[in-house]
Amino acid sequence: MRWAPFELDPESGGGDFVESMHLLAFSDQSAPSAISIFVYLANKDMGQKSFANSDGDLLIVPQNFPLTIRTEFGTMFVRPNEIAVVQQGMRFSVDFGIQEWGRPVSFARGYILEIKGNHFELPYLGPIGANGLANPRDFQVPTAWVEKEHLEKPYEIMIKFQNELFKTTQKGTPYNVAAWFGNYVPFKYDLGKFVCVNSVSVDHPDPSIFTVLTCPLPGKPGTALADFVIFPPRWECAQDTFRPPYYHRNCMTEFMALIKGQYQAKGRAFAPGGASLHQSMIPHGPDKECFEAASSQDTSTPKRVADNTMSFMFETSLTLKLTNWARHENVDQDYHKCWRGL
């Protein structure tokens, strides 16, 4: 299944980060471990509103516009091509400042992966050793900050609990922590700092070599509740090899989207701001155009791929169910045609 770029419905009037979250797909929410995937289409700042997710952690991927995340630990400015993780129970607000930027962007778009039952961690590197992929030194955490101008002003507090939203008000900002210590904190990461690992001889390593963060599935060692994977600019140099991602069926469910550029194995119909979803054991792979070009490619010389491009994948061992909104919003009814003639 594939979606064209998600657009803000002009009749809706838009909303802030929380109001504009559209649920696309979700696993069994009654299970101890679960995930949900959202897209946000926002055109307003949260202002004197604060949100906390009691259900799990949120991984946020801005696509077309930067965002400022105010948290109890400090602020994070997150640009497209960066990600942020706000963990369970942390209060935060998202501001875009669209009017102040003066750019021809009418709304901010991005993706959210929610995980329940565990937390993100760096993948086990095994024979890679101590360095490679996403290095710990490149993750950034906020510095303590107090929102002094709102110390006495009322704040609306929103809590998501068991997938329901509860609201109350409090006197004064929740962002009043003058100092903190510990390791349970929000953080951000620049995807441009990812250190790629790949074959320098023949064939393909598994796509797990592109894992930025993983969330292990409790009780099943070696199985991921969710992986966050990227396909960044890199060199390809495998000889006598079909270099693009090969045709396959996978025990994992793959939700993929494009932040910018054009993905190697798909045409322009897979555009920034859209998405695709391949459920467990559904065969998929490069389109006809990519197959024909790669099949006649000279593999005796290295080649750059994905320059000025960044695509990513939310991957899970769970089966996902689509919402009614996802089944009807900007669905590409001709997706299957990209494989005709193969």
Automatic annotation (TrEMBL):
Binding residues annotated for Fe cation, in chain numbering: H248, E254, H284
Domain Homogentisate 1,2-dioxygenase C-terminal: 193-342
KW Plastid (keyword) present: no
GO BP: L-phenylalanine catabolic process; L-tyrosine catabolic process
EC number(s) given by UniProt: 1.13.11.5
Coiled-coil regions listed: none
Active site: H204 (proton acceptor)
Cellular component per GO, a single term: cytoplasm
InterPro entries to which the protein is assigned, alphabetical: HgmA_C (IPR046451), HgmA_N (IPR046452), Homogentis_dOase (IPR005708), RmlC-like_jellyroll (IPR014710), RmlC_Cupin_sf (IPR011051)
Pathway annotation: Amino-acid degradation; L-phenylalanine degradation; acetoacetate and fumarate from L-phenylalanine: step 4/6
Domain Homogentisate 1,2-dioxygenase N-terminal: 1-191
One matching Pfam family: HgmA_C
Binding sites annotated in the UniProt record for homogentisate: Y263, H284
Molecular functions (GO terms): homogentisate 1,2-dioxygenase activity; metal ion binding
Cofactor(s) named in the record: Fe cation
Protein name as it appears in the record: Homogentisate 1,2-dioxygenase
Upper lineage: Eukaryota, Metazoa, Ecdysozoa, Arthropoda, Chelicerata
